[in-house]
Every structure is written in structure tokens, then in C-alpha cells.
Amino acid sequence: RDHFSPLCRKIFAETSIFYPLIGYYCGNLLQTDRYQRIRIPAAMAALLCIEADAGMTFYDCAVNAGTWSEKYLAALIMIPAIAVFCGARLTFMRHEPGEKFAGVISWFGKMTFGVFLMSIYMQIRLLPVFRFLAQFMPVMPACLLYVAAVLAVCSAITFVLKLIPGLRSDVAYEVINGN
């Protein structure tokens, strides 16, 4: 039975309330001096939550005779998300990104809706890439390269689709471009 994950989802309503509120906080209310005092405890809490998620997942696997389940895999992911959101925001508040880097981030930002729509399909289609890479390197680097490949392919397809004149006048084009 899964008691913990639904509780977290009910408390934080993560996708509809929690993440937008954290995004608003990081974008508008975050103060550099206040976060500096808690950045080490925040990072430690984030790591502890990741470790707890992994521990619950492996414990569940051991208790259920090796049956793998992901019901606890992201139960506490909201805490590391806060640390990552705030850390990224403060990094860019203190250090202005270079023009090229800002351009790349902006370009990928314009592709996110298309990536969101295509990512599951591309994950399935590109799974052989992961399997191939995992034969020659550890699983984690292979997974990172696989995720980068999915992002690159979805972004490229979205970019090409945005060049089609029929889509430019469509509402979808406005949504994809964030207008």
C-alpha cells in the first residue's frame, strides 16, 4: 500500500499549486542574504530527501521479494526542487550569464511546450540509444546522454514545426512561443 506519496500530493498539490508558488517565490520574493544563511541546510535537506526516497524504494523492493516499484521514488521530490529552484535563481542573480549562454537557454525555453508534448513518445523511440550506451558505460552517464538526446530531438522537431507557416497562425504557435 502507498500511504506516503498520496499524502505529499494532497498536502502540496505539487503540480497545480506547489511548483507555481515556488516559481513565484523564487522569481519575486527570494532575497539573496536570507537564502545565503540557509543554503547549506537547504542542500542537506534536499540530499536527505533524495536519500530517503531511494531508501524507501529499495526497502519496498526488499520487502516485496525483489518486485520493483516506483511508488516512493519521488515522494519527497518537492524539497530538492525548492533547493534547485532557489539555487538556480540566486546563481543567475549574482552572476549574469554570457550572451551566448542566455541565448541557448532562451532558445530551449521556447521549445519546452513542444518537448513536453513529444517527450514520452521520444523516450520510447530513443530507448535503443540508452540500451546501446549502457553496454559501454555506467548506467548513470548513459541515462544522462539518453535524456540529453530526447531533449535535443524533441527541441529540433519543435523548432522545425515552428517554421511551418500554417502553425504560425495557429493558437498552438502562440502557446508554444509563450505569447
Short description:
By secondary structure, this protein is mostly helical.
What do these coordinates show?
The longest helix is centred in the N-terminal third of the chain and has 32 residues, at 32-63. This protein is globular. Helices cover 81% and strands 0% of the residues. It is mainly α. The mean pLDDT is 78. The chain has nine helices and no strands. It has helices at residues 4-12, 14-29, 32-63, 78-94, 99-125, 127-134, 139-163, 165-168, 171-177.
Name the beta content range: under 5%
Q: What's the main sheet like? A: none
Helix and strand pattern = HHHHHHHHH
What ranges have pLDDT less than 50 throughout 5 or more consecutive residues? none
| Oligomeric state, counting identical vs distinct chains | single chain
Q: Treating each run of at least 4 consecutive H or I residues as one helix, how many helices?
A: 9
| Overall 3D form | globular
Q: What is the number of E strands?
A: 0
> Mean pLDDT, nearest integer?
78
Query: Percent of residues in helical segments?
Result: over 70%
**What structural class should be given to the helix and strand makeup?**
mainly alpha
**Terminal Cα span:** 44 Å
Radius of gyration: 20 Å
Which descriptors would you attach to this protein?
179 residues
What is the fold's blueprint, element by element?
Blueprint: H1 4-12, H2 14-29, H3 32-63, H4 78-94, H5 99-125, H6 127-134, H7 139-163, H8 165-168, H9 171-177
Helix pairs in contact: 1-2, 2-4, 3-4, 5-7, 6-7
